[in-house]
Amino acid sequence: MRKQNLRLTGCQNLCPNKPKAMKISKEGRNGTRRLKKTKIYSPLVLLLHGFPELWYSWRHQILYLADHGYRAVAPDLRGYGDTTGAPVDDHTKFTIYHIVGDLIGLLNAITSEGEKVFLVGQDWGAFVAWHMCMFRPDRVKALVNLSVPFFPWSPMGDLIQMMRVVYGEDHYMVRFQEPGDIEAELARIDVKTVVKKFFAFREPGPFYFPKGKGFHYSPNDAPVTLPPWLSEDDVEYFTSKFEKSGFTGGVNYYRVIPLNWELTAVWSGVKVTVPSKFIIGDLDLVYHLPGIKDYIHNGGFHDDVPLLEEIVVLDNAAHFINQEKPDEINKNIIEFLKKF
């Protein structure tokens, strides 16, 4: 069995004067990074990123949480950044059980036995966080999720089937299904441009990637105007990591959606019973999926997450909300965590 090694970043890299959540030695005996625990007692907040992102997406929250006395831990998830061990050419090794298992292993390495932590997730990180709360509520004190609400298991089929019916074959989730296909198309565009175009998308409608035509909303050779919340230095960091890792690791989270649906049927009807808060932007493409607003605001969401205490919709905010609106997100996170 191949051991998954998560690339971790906490306060130690960004705020050296704050208590450290963990230390990472330069090399283990087999050349992989190892964790060393330190004795600290401030609450731990585990930050889970989305696609196409990295731990770096939480750069604003790490500093803010540290300033307010929390241990902020932001791993690169399986297949991203500097992670090792997971075979990116096999998407079946990226099921929700693999990802949650990675995080439980991480918590076992950096916390005391049985310690509960705070979870904060965005995009795919939110999807993972909902399931971690469902699978292992004994390890989670409270949850703040951004952008993606809880999606209960549906007997109607998996999300890819639904997206294909509603939006057709050009929808990005559908296009991501065939191994190697989207990678070949992205390879015809330089990595920096790919990063810019993903982050610059700000339309509340669906995201299309027509075969052979690249980004539907912006031709491949069209210049990209960066949103004000994203600097060229930020782009350089994301680019440097995706130039090394490629995009397959992140795309695998989409490719495994049908398998996740098959494997999680046993959880049908199970509720998320962790105190929760949900935040989404009014321009987020997820917020404008068919039926989502009704689900979020008219009782369905609360039925599935009975301890959902608050739903926040931020004005003039799109999908990458923790980077776009860091001040509002930071305040919302802290206000909720302070209750516990």
From TrEMBL:
<dbReference type="Pfam" id="PF00561">
    <property type="entry name" value="Abhydrolase_1"/>
</dbReference>
<protein>
    <submittedName>
        <fullName>Alpha/beta hydrolase fold-1</fullName>
    </submittedName>
</protein>
<dbReference type="InterPro" id="IPR029058">
    <property type="entry name" value="AB_hydrolase_fold"/>
</dbReference>
<dbReference type="InterPro" id="IPR000073">
    <property type="entry name" value="AB_hydrolase_1"/>
</dbReference>
<keyword id="KW-0378">Hydrolase</keyword>
<feature type="domain" description="AB hydrolase-1">
    <location>
        <begin position="43"/>
        <end position="154"/>
    </location>
</feature>
<dbReference type="GO" id="GO:0016787">
    <property type="term" value="F:hydrolase activity"/>
</dbReference>
<comment type="similarity">
    <text>Belongs to the AB hydrolase superfamily. Epoxide hydrolase family.</text>
</comment>
<dbReference type="InterPro" id="IPR000639">
    <property type="entry name" value="Epox_hydrolase-like"/>
</dbReference>
